[in-house]
Amino acid sequence: MDAARTDASEVLYEVEQHVATITLNAPERMNTISGPMLDALSRLLVQADEDPEVRCVILTGRGRAFCAGLDLRPKGDSGRTLLSSASSPTNLNLRNTPPTVMHAMDKPIICAINGGAAGYGMDTALGCDIRIMAKSAKLAAAFTRRGVVPESGGTWFLPRMIGWARAAELIFTGRTLTADEALEWGLVSHVVPDGQLMTKARELAAEIAGNAPLAVQAAKRMMRMGLSEPFNEHVHHVFLQLLPLFRSEDAAEGMAAFMEKRQPVFRGR
Q1: What predicted TM-score, i.e. pTM, was given to this entire model?
Q2: Residue 178, burial from CB neighbour count under 10 angstroms (0-12, 13-18, 19+)
Q3: What is the maximal distance between C-alpha atoms in the chain?
Q4: What is the number of other CB atoms lying within 10 angstroms of the CB of residue 114?
C-alpha cells in the first residue's frame, strides 16, 4: 500500500504497509494536549479504526516527551483553561475523547513511548494495547501531586494491569517510574535503546498486520468484553464470533497456507 500522509499540525497521521502512525507534534511544549489536539487525536483514531487498509496503529510523540499531560495554559484573555472550560455538567461530554475512543477501537494500538509520559500522557499510554518504552523515557503518575486523580482511565487500567497494591502505591505516591522500573512492574512489554524505539514498534506492528485482520480485531473485541463477563457467558460470545470468521476468505486462506506450508496472504475479508 502506498504511504498516505495528513498533517494536522499538532497531530500527524501516516499510513504505510497497513500500519497507521499517529504522532503528537507539539514538541516545544512537550506534547501537552490542547483542546484542538484532543479533537484531532480522537478524529484520527476513529479514522484509523474505520480504514479497512489499517490493521495496526502506532501512537508516539515527537521530541523529548511522549506527552507531559494536558495543556493547562489559559486560553486568550478569558483566563479559562482546558479543564475549566469543561467543568460545567451541561457540556461535559466524554463519548468522543481519546481514552473512550481508544477503548472502543478494534484495531490494536502500540504506544511507542519516546520520552516522558505524565498525567494525561501516562493514562493515554496505558489505554493502548501494547507499550514499548525508550530507555530514557519515564512514566510519571503525578496526579495526586497536582491535587487531582488519574482523569483519563488510570484508576481503571492500573489495578487490572498490576494489581491493587501496586496500583495504590503508584497512584497514592504520585511516583515517577524509569523505563526499567515500568518493565519490572509490568506496565510495558519492551524497553529498547532510544534510537531503536520506532524500529521495534514498526517490527511488532508489521508482525500483527501480517495476521488475519478480522481475527485480530475479533480477538481484541473478545478480550475487551471478557473484562466484564462471567466465563460461561464469555465463551458463548466467543463461539458466536467464530461463526462468521469460519466463513471468511481469510480463514480459508489461513488453513490452505498451513496445509501448503507457505505464508498466508490475508485480505481482511
Answers
A1: 0.87
A2: middle
A3: 68
A4: 26
